[in-house]
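Action item from last meeting closed. Structure (107 res):
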């Protein structure tokens, strides 16, 4: 049984759907680390660029990098190491990644 989750492990990334890319050529990917009581814990990463997304229920903590997330209600959140954010299913967001961002998520 592995008790230590490797949040530094390589996360495979791939180009985003061109229909979601606003600027640049961002790539993103995730790696599941564990399932706890039916909830997934994993690591997600996105390279610099701008893309839109529709969120799932999730709480995340930024491990490294920087980005700004804009929500359709007008709120903007600047992200950096240690930022903790709650996303709700169905929220439309725009991610502007300044420096490759890596987060650990619970969804």
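Sequence:
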């Amino acid at each position: 049984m592995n008790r230590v989750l490797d949040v530094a492990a390589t996360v495979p990334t791939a180009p985003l759907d061109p229909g979601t890319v606003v600027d640049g050529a961002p790539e993103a990917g995730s790696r599941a680390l564990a399932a706890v009581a039916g909830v997934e814990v994993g690591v997600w990463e996105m390279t610099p660029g701008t893309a839109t997304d529709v969120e799932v229920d999730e709480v995340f903590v930024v491990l490294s990098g920087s980005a700004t997330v804009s929500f359709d209600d007008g709120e903007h959140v600047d992200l950096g190491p240690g930022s903790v954010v709650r996303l709700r299913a169905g929220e439309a967001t725009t991610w502007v990644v300044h420096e490759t961002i890596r987060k650990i998520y619970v969804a």
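Note appended to the action item: The chain has a mean pLDDT of 95.
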